[in-house]
Structure formats: structure tokens, C-alpha cells
């Protein structure tokens, strides 16, 4: 089984990324041949600083190893090291419709909040489709916010296969049953996010314990004092319940039963401690791994070599089937 997932090196990664994506990566790497891609080409579709991009690409590599990815089992690489990705994206853009791209929620949401809307932000999902399809991927472990983009990748695979002959596997998404969409602690109706979230409402994986405690303590809660999972009526408390369930592995009904009539105070302080217990060892491992930049670069170079070799035959087939004269 082939597994592929991409993560943007945009700023520091947060608990939402951990819950929706990283947490699934560790067990899934045992199920087949896994590729995890630091999608730096995606990161330039919104405003960015070149120096930060360089640093955060290496930060993300260290983070992926800190959460438990094993470079001997999985291939971890940087997207821009494998030029097949933008090449395949250009070929796929000829079968992606302008209308479908315009309906992407992420494009509409992010577009609304930017003064300058890049063409790259619009075509982003085509590059994401090429990332996934080049590896003949069976399974894509991702958070709920990526469902629509994955659907587009599936549509493009089917369209290409029917127009030019069977070339791509049609991938399936794998979404966590709990914690697939973690919300901002300050604005629980919006997802926790690096670029669009509130700093106080975003728990970073590298936040020190005191910062985590402060952020959870000031999390927006709802009227009433009962701890119940009702996302419509109680978005703040329901989000905290999901966070605690992800952090401890305890099912939500069990947590509801324990905290139901105890008020929000004790509950919030236990959520904070559960996060600290989970994230503190990751932060410490991260700091250790991040300090050895030459080792990180060496592992990424090995990953890129393997990724290039794996993606090349699919790209070649795309060119062939579309009628290009090959050199
Ligand atoms: N809030 C979230 N809850 C659960 N999963 C999430 N993911 C992102 N936010 C949440 C999942 O994390 C993986 C990597 O995401 P990404 O780094 O590619 O970027 P993103 O989705 O753009 O993440 P951000 O932080 O939310 O950034 P912006 O501000 O760009 O929207 C993906 O599998 C994603 O589903």
C-alpha cells in the first residue's frame, strides 16, 4: 500500500496539524510504503518571507521526526527537490476546470482575506493532486479541511485515466474519527490555523508548558457550566473535549461522564495538563533534532532521491499518453 501526505512549511505547526495529520502518520507508516512531503511550493501561494521559508522547511523536517516518523521506514522529502511535482501539475492543469477550482472553499476563504490573490492560490489544488497522484497513492492521511482538495485529486485522476488511458490510482482519504478538525480556542467556529488563526487561540506544538496553560485557560467557553459534546450549541467546550480526547486517547463520552457537573475550571486545567504531557516530550525531541541541521539535510537528500525515482515513471507515462515527443 502506498501512502502520501503533504504538509506546508508555513510558520510553526499547531495542535490541529498534529491531531488531523501527524498523529495518523506514525501508525500508518507501518502499513505500507509511506511518503511525507514538505510542500514548500505550496507555501509561496500566500505572502511569505524567503528567509523564513528556508528555516521553516527545516523546522518542519525536525518536527516530523520528533512526532515519530522513522526515516528508515518512510520517505520524507522536500517538494521542490522533486521537479516532477510542478511538471505533473502543469500537465494536470489542462484537465482541471476553472469552475471547479473557483469552488474550492480554501481558495474562497483565503482569497477573501488577502489583498493580493496569487494565481498560485487558485491552482494550488492541482499541484496537490500532482503530489498525490505521482506516487500511485492508495491512502492519503489528512485532516477534514483537505477533503475537498482530495476530491479534486480523485476527479483529475479519473478524468486523466478516461481521456488518456489508465495511468493513476484513484486515492482514498483517511480522516481521524475524532479531532479531524480542531478549532481555534478563541474563535471556536473557525479552524485552528497557522495563517488565519488568532495567536492566543492556536496551540503550537513547540509552545512551552506555561504558554499552553495560558492559552487553554483563556479559551472561549459557552454559556452554562456542563461539559457536554454539542458542537452546534457548545462549540468551545466541544472543541476542548476533542482536544482532550486526542491528547489522552480517552473517548469523549467517558470524558463527558467524568466532568459533566464539575464546572469548566477543573476541566480546562486538566485539558491543559493533558496537552503539556503530550506535547512537552515532542518539543524537547524537536529541539534536539533541529540543532543538527546537517543530519536533517542529509535525510532529506536521501528522501528526495527515493521520491524522484518513484515519481519518474508516472510522469513519463503522463507525457507519453498525452502525446509529447520524448527526448
Ligand atoms: N485545525 C485543524 N484540525 C485538524 N487538522 C488540521 N490540519 C490543518 N489544520 C487542521 C491538517 O494538517 C495537515 C497539514 O496542513 P498544512 O500544513 O498543509 O496546512 P494547512 O491545512 O494550510 O494548515 P493550517 O495551519 O491551517 O494553515 P493555513 O493557515 O494555510 O490554513 C493537513 O492534513 C491538514 O488537513
Contiguous uncertain segments of 5+ residues: none
Q: Tell me, what's the shape?
A: globular
Arithmetic mean pLDDT: 96
Provide the spatial order of strands within the biggest beta sheet. Answer: 1-2-3
Topology, element by element:
Elements: E1 2-7, H1 15-28, E2 33-38, H2 40-43, H3 50-66, E3 75-78, H4 84-93, H5 98-102, H6 105-112, H7 119-133, E4 139-141, H8 147-164, E5 172-174, H9 209-217, H10 235-248, H11 252-259, H12 264-290, H13 293-321
Parallel strand pairs: 1-2, 2-3, 4-5
Helix pairs in contact: 3-12, 4-7, 4-13, 7-8, 9-12, 10-12
The chain binds adenosine-5'-tetraphosphate.
Give the tags.
327 residues, Tyrosyl-Transfer RNA Synthetase, 2 domains, 3-stranded parallel β-sheet, 54% helix
Amino acid at each position: 500500500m502506498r501512502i502520501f501526505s503533504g504538509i506546508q512549511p508555513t510558520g510553526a505547526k499547531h495542535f490541529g496539524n498534529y491531531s488531523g495529520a501527524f498523529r495518523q502518520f506514525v501508525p500508518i507508516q507501518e502499513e505500507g510504503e509511506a511518503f511525507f512531503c514538505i510542500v514548500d511550493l505550496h507555501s509561496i501561494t500566500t505572502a511569505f518571507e524567503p528567509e523564513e521559508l528556508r528555516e521553516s522547511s527545516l523546522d518542519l523536517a525536525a518536527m516530523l521526526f520528533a512526532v515519530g516518523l522513522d526515516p528508515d521506514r518512510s520517505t520524507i522529502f522536500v517538494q521542490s527537490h522533486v521537479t516532477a511535482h510542478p511538471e505533473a501539475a502543469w500537465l494536470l492543469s489542462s484537465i482541471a476546470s476553472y469552475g471547479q477550482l473557483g469552488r474550492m472553499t480554501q481558495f474562497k476563504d483565503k482569497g477573501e482575506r488577502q489583498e493580493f490573490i496569487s494565481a498560485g492560490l487558485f491552482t494550488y489544488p492541482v499541484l496537490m493532486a500532482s503530489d498525490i497522484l505521482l506516487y500511485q497513492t492508495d491512502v492519503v492521511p489528512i485532516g477534514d479541511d483537505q477533503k475537498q482538495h482530495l476530491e479534486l485529486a480523485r476527479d483529475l485522476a479519473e478524468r486523466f485515466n478516461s481521456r488518456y488511458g489508465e495511468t493513476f490510482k484513484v486515492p482514498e482519504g483517511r480522516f481521524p474519527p475524532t479531532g479531524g478538525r480542531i478549532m481555534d480556542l478563541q474563535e471556536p467556529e473557525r479552524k485552528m490555523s497557522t495563517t488565519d488563526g488568532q495567536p492566543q487561540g492556536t496551540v503550537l506544538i513547540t509552545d512551552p508548558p506555561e504558554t499552553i496553560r495560558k492559552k487553554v485557560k483563556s479559551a472561549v467557553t459557552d454559556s452554562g457550566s456542563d461539559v457536554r459534546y454539542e458542537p452546534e450549541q457548545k462549540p468551545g467546550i466541544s472543541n476542548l473535549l476533542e482536544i482532550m480526547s486526542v491528547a489522552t486517547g480517552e473517548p469523549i463520552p467517558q470524558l463527558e461522564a467524568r466532568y459533566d457537573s464539575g464546572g469548566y475550571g477543573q476541566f480546562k486545567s486538566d485539558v491543559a495538563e493533558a496537552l503539556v504531557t503530550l506535547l512537552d516530550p515532542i518539543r524537547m525531541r524537536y529541539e534536539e533534532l533541529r540543532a543538527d541541521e546537517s543530519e536533517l539535510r542529509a535525510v532529506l537528500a536521501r528522501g528526495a532521491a527515493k521520491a524522484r525515482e518513484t515519481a519518474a515513471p508516472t510522469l513519463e507515462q503522463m507525457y507519453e499518453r498525452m502525446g509529447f515527443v520524448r527526448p
